[in-house]
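Readers of this paper often ask what the protein records in our data store actually look like. Nothing more is needed to write down the fold, since each code stands for a local backbone conformation. Below, we set out a record of this kind in full and without editing:
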Amino acid sequence: MKSFEYFKVKTVAEAIDRLKENPDGSHILNGGTDLVLRMRENHLHPDRIIDIRGIEELKEIRFSKEEGLFVGACVPLGEMAHHKSVVEHYSLLADAAELVGSGQIRNVATMAGNLCNASPLADTATPALVLKAVMIVEGSNGEKEIPVNEFFKGVRRTALEKTDVVKGVRIPYEEGLQGSFQKASRRKDVDLSTVCASGVKIGDEYRFALGAVAPTPLRLPKVESFLKGKEINEDTIKQALDLIDDEISPIDDVRSTKEFRVHLAKTLVQRCLEQMA
């Protein structure tokens, strides 16, 4: 690991100033579970690390029915998973957070960090997609909002600019929402997803998202459109699952074959449907 400058900042404005001094060579340190590993394995060689863990405003979780849920960028996944408002109104997000790594990892890893890694198999990405989450970001030109469905641009690529700092994730409140998170992995605990899926139902509307079946986590618009207003039975489930073939592009890798991922994707979406029925 090469040497680097280290800055522990106290405000978002200070973090942005440090990024502007060296936009190409700087990396934000939040939970650090991915960043530190990549540095140790010599996959990443930053000139400077900007530690935002001391910024108090990024450690908050807030909820109201008017504003929805706000999860600060530095809130650990373990804290988020057990927060009363998350468990009560966004249970699929709590379920997903509980399955990220080990308890030790969940004590430091964050939802913002999990999303900013832009991994195709990030466990909190599919709940964020179906819950219509928005990234709250501050940069050189002030604050902006980036919907999660516009945030992922490719494997480890996002819509963030080099001097942007993610302040948190906001999720709207939707009355009567039912949700489900499903994950398939080689081991039950402390393992990356082979495939993961999230679904929500509000009235006669369904939203689904899959992870680890394409370069980015993605929604299933054809499935959603087909199911809207329909009675859920054996026939409609089968027809909906058949549409998944055209919406995903999995690959063969060390965790699974392409064909098995297609099978898992359909199985997990079916489980979501059955849980929400």
Remarks:
- The chain has a mean pLDDT of 96.
- The longest helix spans residues 258-276.
- The CA atoms of residues 178 and 276 lie 6 Å apart.
